[in-house]
Amino acid sequence: MVPNPLLGVFLHWLGGLASGSFYVPYRGVKRWSWETYWLVGGFWSWIIAPWFLAWLLTRDLLLVLAQTPTRTLFWSFFFGLLWGIGGLTFGLTMRFLGLSLGMAVVLGLCAAFGTLVPPIFSGVFRSQVLETRSGQVILFGIFVCLVGIAMAGLAGASKERTMSREQQRKAIKEFDLNKGIGVATLSGVMSACFAYGLAAGKPIKAITLLHGTPALWQGLPVLVVVLIGGFTTNFLWCVALNVRNNTGHQYFSSDPRNSSSTTNETIVETALDAPSREVVEHIPGPKAENQNKAEAQGSVPMRWNYFLCAVAGTTWYFQFFFYTMGETQMGKYGFSSWTLHMASIIIFSTLWGIGLKEWRGAGTSALRLLTLALFLLVGSTVIVGYGNYLGLTR
Fold it and tell me: ∠ CA(137), CA(139), CA(144), 5° rounding?
């Protein structure tokens, strides 16, 4: 298969669209705590969708995994486990730094570490990146992406300045710069471990290709292993919250007296999953409180909740479904896929935020910075794609 960077960029955009959109169905879930609907959706994200699509589109999935060296399986799983920890610490970052600064630090570190560490670790960073024109163009594209993330952070900071003091106190109740930077660093590095898990799973790709799997789908068996690691971390955390908050009955009971509309735990979706402010800023206003009271009068829509979680979870998985497809089109610079992925997520999650009117009243300065951020992020994907194209022509 001849790589096609233009197609690769488009596939990464589709992945970003899926990641930026997956949380929207969760907004329709009624009378379930966060840990309940996150775990139900997680079964589709990390178990059902990966296994089903890998079984459907690849050859001899179970045999391929059985023939994979134990070392490869361990490291792919382990990095998925660490990625899950990055998600848990992401919520703490928002608590100590606030959304704008926290997002900028975490996403910037995640993009940089997830893109640059794999080629450095494999020993090709100097020969394939620093000493080639195509590699230098890709590095410039990564730099533009990081600047775009910084601009998005500044836009969020400008928006927060338009909030009342009461709203600011609610958004950042425990501001602590030293703790926040430390936790943000941990979260950004850990969240980048997903890229390391995919890199560690390269032997799985080779084995599945030998079994006749088309090159476009070679990354799907790797996702199966990495996402088991992510599922393990999230499963343990959600079950712990179910026990602590006494919400385990929500999986089975439609009695509204046994349900809770809101919970006080910090939302902990990973830096890769952040669909604008919805993720971490669950601050119910008067309208939301009235809606919660109205919902309490009826029974819990169990079937509807499960359906929405299935849609959200499957949509979440499609970000990496398209990621692995896009990676096959980037030639020898497959590591640059991580920058394309991160930029695409922020682009589409920001557009969702605009569409859901989360930036209404943010002020001219914030909107200008946001526009600049979108321009830079879109431009970064074009630059990285062009660098990959140069790598094919030389």
Answer: 95
Q: Do 370 and 114 touch, CB atoms closer than 8 A?
A: no
**374: CB partners within 8 A, 6+ apart:** 148, 347, 350, 351
Tokens 């001219």 belong to residue: 364
- Tell me the CA distances in angstroms from 320 to 194, 221, 263, 325, 371, one per residue in order: 10, 12, 30, 8, 27
CB 2 within 8 A of CB 281: no
Residue with tokens 């570190």: 109
- What are the φ and ψ backbone dihedral angles of 391, each rounded to 5 degrees? -65, -25
- Kindly give the confidence (pLDDT) of every residue in the chain, 394 residues in length, as a single tens digit, with 9 standing for 90 and above: 677 888 888 998 998 888 878 878 888 888 888 889 889 999 999 999 999 999 999 999 999 999 999 999 999 999 999 998 887 777 666 666 665 566 667 777 777 887 888 888 777 778 778 888 888 888 898 889 888 888 877 887 777 677 665 555 555 555 565 777 777 788 888 888 888 999 999 999 999 999 999 999 999 999 999 999 999 998 998 899 899 989 888 898 777 655 544 444 444 444 444 433 333 343 333 444 444 554 445 678 889 999 999 999 999 999 999 999 998 888 777 888 888 888 888 788 777 777 767 677 767 888 888 888 888 888 888 888 888 888 776 6
| CA–CA distance, 191 with 221 (Å, rounded to integer) | 20
* DSSP 8-state symbol, 46: I
Show the tokens assigned to 9.
């960029």
Report the C-alpha gap between 52 and 174 in whole angstroms. Answer: 43
Amino acid identity for residue 147 in this structure: V
Question: Which pair of tokens denotes residue 164?
Answer: 């009342």
Report the 3 state secondary structure along 257-314.
HHCCCCCCCCCCCCHHHCCHHHHCCCCCCHHHHHHHHHHCCCCCCHHHHHHHHHHHHH
The CA distance from 357 to 39, in Å, is 28
Nearest to 50 by CA among 220, 293, 248: 220
CB 256 within 8 A of CB 299: yes
Ramachandran region of residue 31, left (φ > 0), alpha (ψ -120 to 50) or beta? left
> What is the residue whose two structure tokens read 């809770």?
260
Helices 70-97, 99-122: inter-axial angle, 10-degree rounding: 160
Phi, psi of 265 (to 5 degrees): -70, 155
